[in-house]
From TrEMBL, chain A:
Gene3D superfamilies: MetI-like. One of its GO terms (cellular component) is plasma membrane. Residues 1-10 have a biased composition (Basic and acidic residues). It comes from Ilumatobacter coccineus (strain NBRC 103263 / KCTC 29153 / YM16-304). This is Putative sugar ABC transporter permease protein. Keywords: Cell membrane, Membrane, Transmembrane, Transmembrane helix, Transport. CDD domains: TM_PBP2. It is found in: Cell membrane. Residues 1-21 are annotated as: Disordered. Residues 96-306 form the ABC transmembrane type-1 domain. It comes from the Bacteria. It is a multi-pass membrane protein.
From TrEMBL, chain B:
It comes from Ilumatobacter coccineus (strain NBRC 103263 / KCTC 29153 / YM16-304). The lineage of its organism: Bacteria, Bacillati, Actinomycetota, Acidimicrobiia, Acidimicrobiales. This is Putative sugar ABC transporter sugar-binding protein. InterPro entries: Bact_solute-bd_prot1, SBP. Pfam families: SBP_bac_1. PANTHER family: ARABINOSE-BINDING PROTEIN-RELATED (PTHR43649), DIACETYLCHITOBIOSE BINDING PROTEIN DASA (PTHR43649:SF12). Residues 1-26 form the signal peptide.
Amino acid sequence: MSDAVTEHTEPQSIEYDEPTDHADEVKRLERREGWKRRLPILPALLFTILVTQIPFLFTLFYSLTEWRLDTPEPREVIGFENYAALPDDKFFRDAAWVSVKMTVSAVLLSLIVGTGLALLLDRKFFGQGFVRTLLITPFLVMPVVAGLLWKTQMFNSTFGVINWFIETLGFGPTEFATRFPLASVVVVLVWQWSPFMMLIVLAGLQGQDASTLEAARVDGATSWGTFRQITFPQLRPYLELGTLLGAIYLIQVYDHIEIITGGSPDSKNLPFYIAQRSIGGGNRFGLASSYSIIVVIASIIIANIGLRVLSGLLEDDS
Amino acid sequence: MARTKKIKTRIVAPAVLATFALVAGACGSDDAAEPAEAPAEETAEETAEEPAESPAEEPAAEADRSITVALVGNDNITRMGELAAEYFTPETGIEVNLTVLDEQTLREVTTRDVGAGGEQFDVVQIGMYETPQFGANGWLVGLNDLAAASDTYDIDDLIPAVRNGLSVDGELYSSPFYAESSFVMYRSDIIDNMPDAPTWDEVAAIAREIDSDEMAGICLRGKPGWGDLGAAFTTVLNTFGGTWWAANEDGSIGESQVDQPEFAEALNFYVDLLNDAGEDDAANSSFNECKTLYEEGKVAMWYDATVAASLFPEDVVENTAFALAPTKETEASGWLWAWTLAIPVSTSDQEAAWEFIDWATNADYHEIIAAEDGWRAVPPGTRQSLYERPEYQEAAGAFAQRTLDAMLAAPIDNPGTTPRPGLPGVQYVGVPEFQDVGTRCTELFSAAIAGSMSVDDALADCHIIASEVSS
């Protein structure tokens, strides 16, 4: 029975299977087409993988060694000792905490200031383009220059603008950069990054549907109400994007700290601490490598959480 | 749906913009962060090609020779760089490319370059701290034979204490450009009750007495760095009876002594004195800042390196008197230091490097400087012949003998009251670990001076740092 039936039904079964076979065929063709299209990019991809991942592998290896430059002993593999010592390193913990404080406050403050500026810029007025250009300028200043500018022209206790202002109000001079190192760095970061946030938020504001706003106005909504109920919900993805990009960049701040405070304890973040433990005179390359690995892992975790928060933004395709 | 699409395009635009800006920012910061190294790299390439070319065509190639020199940004050292272009290059045909860095950066860069066998520099400026360590590590070219073969370099003319400090087993590893001790410089028109050999208590009392809004009582180093704040503070620490570490019997680093009462007493004294009678923004001041303040009449007294006296303008010297480094528990507390020139073994042109060092540190250079800037400006403290010259004694009479005496009195092997055999040095501890410990601790001390941290917290954290390297 089975034989006859199979013989008999075979053409039929092929007919039934055909659609799936087709799909497989199409997939195969697509895959081949895909590879054909990707092939020219492959060398670049390989190159990118090599230059980004080989140093990482080296760092991974170094982190398992005791390697100091200032004593002529050869590099020695010590396993996970560098990692085991990490939880006891008070200064690593301090630096991590400074990183958190610095990044969170700089991102939030620049987001607030940036949003404020964007709201002001979002209406038509004479010289709008000029004002916008002026407001963007701080973001275009190199970090080192920004640091120098603020350290010498603004914070300086003898010829700084801020102190001049304070003294005209009758207060004594204050050495901001040494007295309040963290706050000083954050102020400069906010000054530099508010324009960036402003640009992003401005894009969101100008993408608003004019007729909706018009309708709200006709219905007698207050401007605060309109902002809270219409503008803000629409701005959310833009604010999230600004937060993510700002955080990714601001977690790595080094130049500002080096220039403004020189790494005074209250402003020493992880990048600064790692640099100091290795090339900055510490010369403990093995130990610093293990710090770097930990920071990379932590960053990936945090970035993933950040991306998940932004999932609404990134999953628009579906 | 259309709405979502609109949002997406709106978001992509700033995102792309942001990415561009980030890339641009990153490039910009890289360029600017290491301004001094960039030119050096270029020139290092030039010198690397040198050996291949020069033997082929000796006379023509000689004009193309060049060396790269790392120098510290002090006045009389950068002056030497200027004079090299004027005198040395025309005479020898060797072009000198200078990389001038501040003290702390220079130390980091040279340690990294010399230690890792980099070929960035043919001549490096290092100090009395680094020379014995680098020499013992085999990182430097020994200079005895080169000096013996030279007609112009008289190795026996070097002041013995300096020569010893720069030698390992009798081999000289770097040539001193200037050497110094530390002393008190004060305005003789304002202060008339300064003893010749004051104690710290006397100095502090005088400083507090004359401190006013217009003129601070004293200028002391407060900038982080073991060679900045660390140097001045460590001489205070020694004479207060404290020390950084005890020494083990084999000469290695013993237990941290940062938690001892003497250490706390010294740091409290230093911080209090700066707060009561010190210069403005003390946490940012070191040698160069204090020098400016003193010359401008904004401080009445300055405890620092003896070399400062040779750098003052004429009118400042006239109103300045000099007292020995202040003491408390010890006989003498002045430091001994030399800025020197050395050749890393990785140099590509040892001969040219030595020619330059010979030129910059022999007695003929003294003549050049004297002709250009007067005898008082001659880099002091390295050669006995200088102190025997009547012209120098006349021009630098106010401080020449004082400098020499202070250098000879510097208790280099046994500073302070705590014996620490194997850990030499007055204003530093001559072991590799001190560079890192000193830098990190002085950051804390500087924060204490600024008031952003308490002295007790600074001491507690410093004790942890110093204990890490105890064996």
